[in-house]
């Protein structure tokens, strides 16, 4: 059990180190991913805002 936990912690540390190394090596790639994430969040926020705005306008016009 102890050996298994030690192996798991080593694997986790190695994978964390490789992720950090990847982010430092491929800074452009990471920035591309961040830009895609920001664009996706912006589109999602716009969609949510428009949905609530249109629902609010139709609810007001039905009164």
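-> sequence recovered:
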């Amino acid at each position: 059990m102890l050996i298994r936990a030690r192996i798991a912690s080593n694997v986790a540390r190695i994978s964390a180190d490789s992720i950090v190394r990847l982010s430092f090596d491929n800074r452009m790639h990471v920035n591309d991913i961040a830009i895609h994430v920001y664009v996706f969040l912006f589109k999602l926020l716009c969609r949510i805002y428009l949905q609530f705005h249109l629902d609010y306008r139709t609810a007001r016009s039905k009164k």
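Residues 27-62 form the longest helix (36 residues).
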